[in-house]
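User: Structure please.
Assistant: Input sequence and predicted structure:
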Amino acid sequence: MARIVASNETDVVGAVRAARETKRTLEIVGAATKRGFGRSVEWDDVLDLSGLRGIVKYEPDELVITALAGTPVAEVEAVLAEKSQRLGFEPADWGPLFGAPANSATIGGVIAADASGSAAIKFGRARDHLLGFRAVNGFGEAYKAGGRVVKNVTGFDLPKLMCGAMGTLGPMTEVTLRAVPNANSVSYLAKDIAPSTGLALLRAVWKAPLEATGLAYLPQNIERFFSEIGGFGLGVGIVRIEGSGSALQEKRSNLQSTLNGRRLVEAHDGSDMFRKVNSGTSFVDTMEDVWLVSLPQPDADSIATRLSSHWIADWAGGKLWSRGTPGYDGTWMREALLARGGRATLVRASKQTRIRVPPFTSESPTRSALTKTVKVAFDPLRLFNPGRIWEGV
């Protein structure tokens, strides 16, 4: 197995053309922080994009930033912070789940995995912030899709297609993202509430005109992972709101009314708590499998109570992190979610389990045929991460 280290787009084009000539498959990696995510498949060579690093262009007045795909997320966020801006989808740092150092993920890898954090409940996921990109297709051709303007509606929406594609459609070399202004934020804790009550309260806040940027629920048995909270009782709901001083005060009053006067405690380290939530921090030091469940918020109660004893709700119940018994195939979970329009993804498991258990929910025959057609259009020789999401893709 050869490791091909690219330092620019020309190197990537050359690597792909060489792979095309020899018909050798390529594992596309950046910082390799999510290398254990997806089906366990062996590829011929590794195409390392971590050398494609740097900010290409930043237009603060337009809230648009362009960076090379191998640029660390931390570097992008630091540049934006200098102008009181940030990435609205709040990139989730999943690296430690796989034994990688914290804060080492690249912006291209986050986009490829659609790793969106708690603030996505207001601002949308990564796919809603990717305005454009540059990439190399399976013919060894560099191309550009989308652009630097927010209102880009011409042609097929390729940026959304690349988000969550896990590199199977080809290596991105550059990404252009929409930023959002920074704002003062305050997080409030509603303590000692049972799961059903807590999730119902979070849904009520989500429906209220509060524009919350974080709505999470933590059941009592994970208290040791959030020691800063200081006493869970039955469980804790966390609400994060943003705005100027006067706007925050008004939102707090409205929040109190929405929660029917339930006592709230201000959390001085709310941002850190939400980083723990959206990055699955409480699952890092466990040997168990880790599942990520997406489902309609009203169904969170019935699904959460059947999960393991260790779970966390985000997006007001629209996203659930859960431990799983090692080797469990997720059958009941996926069957229960199918009728609800949800899905369960096996984020972390042993190599043996990922060979036996599909990490991603299977597609319908019609959708699967469409997915394979798209794969062939971008990568006819199946050079890029073949089989990482589904067999044959």
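The domain at 185-349 is CATH 3.40.462.10 (Vanillyl-alcohol Oxidase; Chain A, domain 3).
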